[in-house]
Amino acid sequence: AFEVLVIGGGPAGAAAAVYAARKGIRTGVAAERFGGQVLDTMAIENFISVQHTEGPKLATALEQHVKQYDVDVMNLQKAVGLVAPKTPGGLIEVKLENGASLKSRTVILSTGARWRNVNVPGEAEYKNKGVAYCPHCDGPLFKGKRVAVIGGGNSGVEAAIDLAGIVAHVTLIEYDSQLRADAVLQRKLASLPNVTIVTSAMTTEIHGDGAKVSGLSYKDRNHDTAHRVDLEGVFVQIGLVPNTEWLKDSNVALSNRGEIEVDYRGETSMPGVFAAGDATTTPYKQIIIAMGEGAKASLSAFDYLIRLPAE
Ligand code: FAD
After folding, report:
1. Closest residue by Cα to residue 76 from 167, 160, 9
2. Contact in structure between 239 and 118 (CB atoms under 8 Å)
3. Ligand 1 pocket member 137 (CB < 6 A)
4. Residue with the nearest Cα to atom 53 of ligand 1?
């Protein structure tokens, strides 16, 4: 059995594994895809002290750093269930899709999240070539250019306000007849001179010239008319879904959005189970934040372990 078992091999999981291994305790990492969302990222320019890197490069560095230590890395392993110990302080069980199960004194959940796609022609083709999901990450790449934000909930309206300060013009596209963001955000958005808000609009296609995005088409749902906007970037903001479906039947408390509820130490509602990164209620989903939270969850797990009664 492990003393610390990390589920997920993104920035949060990698940081948790390194911190645990450095305590000299039996550490394992099971990940469906080691590297996580970082593998799908191109330019990364906000990982402080590294001016510029690329996703696959950072993912390789994460794996190499973990493998410097005596960590049992189990890649391509998907967790499907978490079972609480039979007695307090006992072994926690993680069930894998392949039928096997792993046991550990503590578990760190860091299964991340995924952006919801609009699923229109051009979205997949121009991902990282004008189609973006993270305004904090990619906003500055569109300085002085024209962009659209798809989605009029809080994250879409926040993104539009943020981007309006950087880019030349923002078109906010909302499917519904009205925005769903908080009133205070809507008022702020309406006050900005370089923002156009389009409601009752269904995005139908993202256009490009083969190398990068050149426009977006939408259907006006009230008049059934087709429209095209020329622009250089599209930010899709229709939701970030935590990878926590596999925890629904466990005793780990999830928020109404499916995020793992954690306290300031990274503890979940189940003793011995900690969590970090995009899968949790911690706000602002960023690499540097996920790594910090992973380190914190690992140190909390260590604190928990040294308080367990000797066997
Ligand atoms: P993830 O990176 O999502 O990793 C989750 C891990 O858990 C993966 O290994 C996954 O395979 C595994 N997993 C999931 N479910 C299971 C399961 N059931 N069993 C086992 N393993 C499982 N952030 C920045 O700071 N700067 C940027 O420039 C930036 N650009 C981005 C660009 C794109 C296109 C995207 C998608 C994200 C970007 N982000 C950026 C956000 C950043 O990637 C995330 O905040 C960060 O990766 C979160 O780390 P994490 O470890 O919590 O989760």
Report:
1. 9
2. no
3. yes
4. 112
**Domains in the chain, start-ordered, CATH in brackets?**
2-114+240-306 (3.50.50.60), 117-236 (3.50.50.60)
pLDDT digits (tens, 9 = 90+) for 194-230: 999 999 999 999 999 999 999 999 999 999 999 999 9
The C-alpha atoms of residue 196 and residue 190 are separated, in whole angstroms, by: 9
Q: Which pTM value belongs to this model?
A: 0.94
Query: Per DSSP, what are the bridge partners of residue 29?
Result: 6, 73
Q: For residue 13, what is the DSSP state?
A: H
Atom of ligand 1 nearest to the CA of 287: 25
Evaluate: CB of 59 within 6 angstroms of ligand 1: no
Beta bridge partners of 201: 220
